[in-house]
Amino acid sequence: MVARPTAHAVIPRDWIDDMRTNGDRQAWMDGNFADMFENGRYRSCWYDVGDGRGTLAAVGIHGQWLWADPQSRVVIAKTSSRADASDDDATALEVAMLSQIAKAYETL
User: Fold this and answer.
1) Residues 34-37: contacts with CB within 8 Å, 24+ apart?
2) Which of 6, 14, 81, 87 has the least CB density, counted as fewest CB within 10 Å?
3) How many CB atoms lie within 10 A of CB 35?
4) pLDDT tens digit sequence for 14-44
5) pLDDT confidence of 4, banded at 50, 70, 90?
């Protein structure tokens, strides 16, 4: 049997709570990216994707992502360099892909 290391916080809990609860929800709904995360919000360069899992994401305009899903305890870093910035169709596919990868790790 392999012993697991003791978990410890890398990011302060207060910071995570701030990212999830602050920011102006109406400003998000009135903005240009509300369709990216229908139930989401934005705070300090991070998106709460609004998936009911507590997932936070950082997004680069050429397809770069950090996707942190606390429910499955997965963080995904996706690097890329799309030719076109902010491609809505590609972004929708990336959101679906990242979400499915994170959810798949729950069963492992």
Assistant:
1) 35/88, 36/88, 36/91, 36/92, 36/95, 37/95
2) 6
3) 11
4) 998 898 888 888 888 898 888 889 888 889 8
5) low
